[in-house]
Automatic annotation (TrEMBL):
The lineage of its organism: Eukaryota, Viridiplantae, Streptophyta, Embryophyta, Tracheophyta. Coiled coil: none annotated. InterPro entries: LEA1/2/D7/KIN2. This is Late embryogenesis abundant protein (LEA) family protein. Residues 1-102 are annotated as: Disordered. It comes from the Eukaryota. PANTHER family: LATE EMBRYOGENESIS ABUNDANT PROTEIN (LEA) FAMILY PROTEIN. It comes from Medicago truncatula (Barrel medic). Transmembrane segments: none annotated. Residues 19-84 have a biased composition (Polar residues). Residues 9-18 have a biased composition (Low complexity).
Length: 102
């Protein structure tokens, strides 16, 4: 083979190698970009789920607080009724025994 033909073929091989290298680089870049987008989407969805969980947790805490307040008010009301009944009973005993007479 003459030197000119060999030089031509070497140049052709080098050009093909560069083209393959460029294609592989492009494919790797595209894969990296896709992975980056997937990662960003996953981060977004994770953040969204975390926000929803915090909102639900806050709502449950509010519901528990409201239930506790309602129970407290109910118990206080019942206690006041018991005290009023006890005071009424004490007055009735005093009246019946004559202690309340002046």
């Amino acid at each position: 083979m003459d030197p000119q033909q060999m030089s031509y073929q070497a140049g052709q091989a080098q050009g093909q190698a560069q083209e393959k290298s460029s294609n592989l680089t492009d494919m790797a870049s595209n894969a990296a970009q896709s992975a980056k987008l997937d990662s960003q989407q996953m981060s977004y969805e994770t953040g969204q789920a975390q926000g929803q969980a915090q909102e639900k947790s806050s709502n449950l805490a509010d519901m528990a607080s409201n239930a506790a307040q309602s129970a407290k008010e109910t118990v206080q009301g019942a206690g006041q009724q018991v005290m009023a009944s006890a005071q009424g009973a004490a007055e009735a005993v005093k009246n019946a025994t004559g202690i309340n007479k002046k």
